[in-house]
Amino acid sequence: MELKLADKKSELLEILRIQKENQSSNLSIDSANTNGFVTVTHSYEMIEKMNSRAKQVIAKMDDQVIGYALVMLKEFEDLIP
């Protein structure tokens, strides 16, 4: 596994894919309770803007993003309702 900063469009898109797959509305109650879930949804435009100011942290294995930690500066607090 490799930890790195996201620097490619494809990596940002993979973050969004993982985020969508793990939305609470896309998981069974058992899965959400066991593995956790995501409540916030970002658009590509949002995450690209966030990444331009502070790089997002990703975990990659076999050249695929398998996890992430988003960095959201205070200046972007109004992006999320």
The overall number of domains is 1
- Taking all residues together, what is the mean pLDDT? 93
Task: Write down how many β-strands occur, each being a DSSP E stretch of 2 or more residues.
Answer: 3
Report strand %.
15-25%
Organism: Zunongwangia profunda
Protein name: GNAT family N-acetyltransferase
GO molecular function, one term: transferase activity
Keywords: Transferase
Task: Give your account of this protein's structure.
GO terms for molecular function: transferase activity. This is GNAT family N-acetyltransferase. Keywords: Transferase. The chain is of the alpha+beta class and 81 residues long. It has a single domain, classed as Gcn5-related N-acetyltransferase (GNAT) (Aminopeptidase). Helix content is 37%, strand content 19%. It has a 3-stranded antiparallel β-sheet with strand order 1-2-3. The longest helix is centred in the N-terminal third of the chain and has 13 residues, at 9-21. The chain is globular. The relative contact order is 0.24.
